[in-house]
Amino acid sequence: xxxxxxxxxxxxxxxxxxxxxxxxxxxxxxxxxxxxxxxxxxxxxxxxxxxxxxxxxxxxxxxxxxxxxxxxxxxxxxxxxxxxxxxxxxxxxxxxxxxxx
Length: 101
Fold this sequence. Notes:
mainly alpha, nucleic acid binding
């Protein structure tokens, strides 16, 4: 790796930050500063605020695949229920409701 790309680090000298991000092979969303720990409630807020718009932009025909790791907030009942109620493969936020009529 090019030495110009290396950044030194120092451990144990203060606070920390948490950032959250989403990306695809073609697009990269801006990182979001998470001011608290990432619990189920905050995870659902991030999904609603960022995942749906990102997926609709990247995959307007609903052919994208949403993947996440296995951390606790991703596996929560709240997060799982939100994803069940808001399918990310739909090109419309209400597409799953239109299918029921």
